Amino acid sequence: MTNAVADAVAGARILEANEIAKGFSWPECPRWHDGALWFSDMYTSTIKTVDATGEVRTVVDATSRAADTTVPIVLGGFGWLPDGRMIVTSMHEKLVLVFDGESLEEYSDLSAHAPGPVNDMVVDADGRAYVTQLGFDLFNGAEPVAAPLISVEMDGSAAAIDSIGPLMGANGIALSEDGTRLYTAEAFANRLLVIDRAADGTLSNPREFAPAPFLPDGICLDSDGGVWAAMPGSGYVGRFVEGGEITDAIAIPLERGVGSACMLGGPDRSTLFVTVGVEVFDFEKSAREALASIWSAEVHHSGGGTRP
Q: Of 145, 125, 235, 129, which Cα lies nearest the Cα of 187?
């Protein structure tokens, strides 16, 4: 843990987390839906669920797509359309796929707007999606460059969101309960951003919500205005309030892995679930060794109606 992180969490309420499931590659993009935690088990090309008893189930299996492409099939951020279908990013294909409960089909092609892998995604109540992207090939050692968020409209059409400018590695992304604010972790600028969102989905006025003492990854929101952010390699998931104070922190032992993302779930959405990974760069090793896990902690704030 760096001195900056130690100082940042010094006044925070430290909450205990416990492992609830294990045996995954690199888990990411957790969601709470239909009474279970859903997450991408990235390097097995699947989306899985964990229920209250700890039972794990594979819900989406995209491994068959590997036969038709030379890029890895890695599922990223996902959410649900108003008609109940799931949409999910395929990071290296630069696609959004749609899952109807049985099959995966192409929903939107993002390649014209994505120089590198696409990443996380949040879906609004109308079915519009906002997609983050790395903007460069992180997994092959490229240098970070700025890239825009991408919008996907209800008809599947995609566009770069130029109104807020390019971001340095936009990562986790979330919508406030009333839908008027969009938040994202600008990973390579070590900060959390808040962006105004109009009723028609347009975005404006990006500004810093809080600086982060360590690279922020996956995020979620609570209904009290806090942003929870995983900070891989720091040993903590922190709850930030506007301006930068960390009020609550979940400690994840670094010898067990690094917290990559978080989500408020459970019956009243006051259980914080944390995906904890071990190997992110070697896809084959990550899937073969399956050392990653899911942790949870009871917290003092609810996710309410925030998204995802």
A: 145
Residues in the chain: 308
Q: What is the DSSP letter of 143?
A: P
Cβ contacts of 141 within 8 Å, gap of 6 or more: none
pTM of the model: 0.96
Q: Given strand 219-221, what is the order of strands in its sheet?
A: 13-15, 246-251, 236-240, 227-231, 219-221
DSSP per position, 288-308: HH--EEEEEEE-S---TT-B-
121: which strand partners? 131
Partnered with residue 27 across adjacent β-strands are: 41
pLDDT in tens, 35-82: 999 999 999 999 999 998 889 999 999 999 999 999 999 999 999 999
Cβ neighbours for 189, distance < 8 A, ≥ 6 positions apart: 167, 168, 169
Closest among 208, 216, 87, 212 to 158, alpha carbons compared: 87
Query: 126-179 pLDDT, tens per residue?
Result: 999 999 998 877 777 778 889 999 999 999 999 999 999 999 999 999 999 999
Q: DSSP class of residue 147?
A: B
**Cα separation of 191 and 183, whole Å?**
11
CA distances from 211 to 5, 10, 85, 187, 218 (A): 12, 16, 36, 11, 15
Q: What totals of helices (H) and strands (E) does the chain contain, helices first?
A: 2, 25
Would you give the DSSP letter of residue 142?
P
Alpha carbon of 130 to those of 38, 150, 239: distances in Å?
Answer: 19, 6, 23
**For residue 79, what are the β-bridge partners?**
87
- Residue pair 276/24 in contact (Cβ under 8 Å)? The answer is no
Determine which helix (DSSP H) or strand (DSSP E) holds 20, and give its type and residue range: strand 18-24
Dihedral sign from CA coordinates of 195, 4, 252, 293: positive
CB under 8 Å to 3, separation ≥6 — which residues?
none
